[in-house]
Design a protein that fits this description.
The chain is mainly α. It has three domains: about 20-140, no CATH class; about 185-285; about 285-485, no CATH class. It contains 19 helices and two strands. The two termini are about 35 Å apart.
């Protein structure tokens, strides 16, 4: 281990620590150790998915498949066509298979530009349902690996805890609610890498990573890329205000960020321009004033999303924001805001980011703007993964801040408060299912929301067990905490 000289200040220490931001070990060893943890997070995520799909006999572990809704009606056909392009080398930009004929470029840009889709070339047409499952599994496991890297880079720590928190991110509520829209999942892979690259800009390092990962996000799926691009502005403001770097001039940092973002968008024009021209021929650019009416998009039923059981097949298309990222993460996020080791500036910054995202989801015109100025027909909160990302990041920082040292009343108040929120969400849904006025106000989706008393009791039990483990002073119990986080 290196011995740092006393005169080395904190800013210099941050730069001298392994440049990916992981501790103060030798660079070669740090890269190796980080790679191992990223690999473990990825493999464990694959194992969890494998167990789930095996239990439900989903291909390649059985005869069932994931061809649900649009996955069967659209994506399978598009991927079949994409396989034909790969295997034959023949690509037409216009097809008469869509109505009386349509430009294919917007469809390709939205559904098919993920690099993971190249895997369909390895399968026969009859094996495409299995290929879709494997692509899904690989994307989710890649999200875990990317989040592992980000947590290490962002916190300058490389503990085994990043594995569990990375898995919590990869299997968050957004993934379980919207996994059938596999083209959106690339955004979950690139988001942590983009955030890590913004951290590098803040540290005065090169912005190449930000350019590469943001460009790939937009090219892979311009829709999620648009949302991620909006979030980069919020995240940059967050790290700039909560973790100021006195060694880098503010003007230089801001200019680097803005120029890099602009270059990324301009590079993406190779896809965006022909896609936009193709969309001009459709009704997608028409404006409906009702989409900008000022009204709430959700109500207290969002509280049910903090625990298990907020999503199922019935409400897959219309539901409250899918915020779930394990109860351990929720408890740690709550502890973050009362932990005296965390600065007031950091707490205010995190609260501001959560506030911006949740208010955007609540106010319909803002929510419409996040969805490229059109209300989606289903999955009304398609950027909910941004909240889960922030929650997991904040939770990991809270775990590093040793929540075991909180005051006794705080250790009791945090789980009690979470239990109260879940009970309130459960009670509100019971009431709302029989209220016509509330149904009209919140788009009439209360009847579709799962609201099981058994699941509520299970959540309360898990909260009690998790809280007892998280807030204990015995370090050996932290391994159990990580296991619960990954569950």
């Amino acid at each position: 281990m290196r011995v740092l000289k006393p005169e080395v200040n904190e800013a210099t220490l941050r730069r001298t620590r392994f440049k990916s931001g992981v501790g103060d070990l030798a660079p070669a060893l740090s890269f190796s150790r980080l790679g191992v943890k990223m690999g473990v997070a990825s493999v464990l995520t694959l194992a969890v998915l494998g167990l789930v799909f095996s239990y439900y006999h989903v291909t390649p572990f059985g005869s069932r498949n994931l061809l649900i809704g649009d996955m069967s009606a659209q994506y399978l056909q598009f991927l079949t066509y994409f396989r034909h392009v790969i295997t034959t080398g023949q690509f037409a930009t216009y097809s008469f298979s869509f109505g009386v004929g349509e430009n294919l470029v917007p469809m390709v840009a939205y559904y098919l530009l993920s690099p993971f889709n190249l895997l369909v070339g390895l399968f026969s047409v009859g094996q495409l349902p299995m290929a879709i499952t494997l692509i899904l599994m690989l994307k989710i496991s890649a999200s875990a690996a990317a989040m592992s890297y980000y947590l290490a880079r962002h916190t300058h720590q490389m503990r085994w805890g990043i594995v569990a928190f990375a898995i919590a991110y990869a299997l968050c509520g957004f993934v379980t609610a919207d996994f059938v829209n596999i083209m959106w999942l690339d955004g979950l892979i690139y988001l942590p890498l983009i955030a890590a690259s913004i951290d590098r800009v803040r540290d005065g390092q090169r912005s190449l990573g930000l350019f590469v990962w943001l460009t790939l996000t937009i090219l892979s799926n311009y829709y999620v890329g648009y949302m991620t691009g909006l979030f980069t502005v919020i995240y940059f403001g967050y790290v700039f205000l909560t973790r100021p770097n006195p060694t880098v001039a503010t003007g230089r940092m801001l200019l680097t960020f803005l120029v890099t973002e602009a270059c990324s968008v301009l590079t993406s024009m190779i896809v965006l321009i022909p896609t936009g021209l193709g969309m001009l021929l459709t009704s997608k650019l028409s404006t409906n004033t009702n989409e900008f009416a000022i009204q709430p998009m959700y109500g207290p039923e969002i509280l049910a999303q903090l625990g298990l059981g907020g999503e199922n097949y019935t409400n897959r298309l219309i539901h409250a924001p899918a915020l779930y990222a394990t109860l351990v993460v929720t408890l740690l996020v709550m502890s973050y805001f009362v932990n005296s080791k965390i600065t007031q500036r950091q707490k205010l910054g995190a609260a501001a980011v959560f506030g911006i995202l949740l208010i955007s989801m609540f106010v319909q015109p803002l929510n419409t703007a996040w969805h490229m100025f059109h209300q989606p027909a289903g999955s009304p909160f398609r950027y909910a993964f941004l909240v889960s990302f922030m929650a997991v990041m904040i939770a990991y920082e809270a775990w590093l801040a040793q929540p075991q040292q909180l005051k006794r009343w705080q250790k009791l108040a945090i789980p009690a408060s979470l239990m109260g929120l879940l009970v309130a969400g459960f009670g509100y849904l019971r009431f709302a299912k029989h209220s016509v006025a509330l149904a009209v106000l919140t788009h009439q989706y209360h009847q579709l929301q799962p609201n099981s008393a058994k699941i509520l009791l299970l959540n309360l039990l898990i909260i009690g067990v998790d809280a007892a483990i998280i807030f204990t002073t015995f370090q050996r119990h932290q391994l159990m905490t990580l296991a619960l986080t990954a569950a």
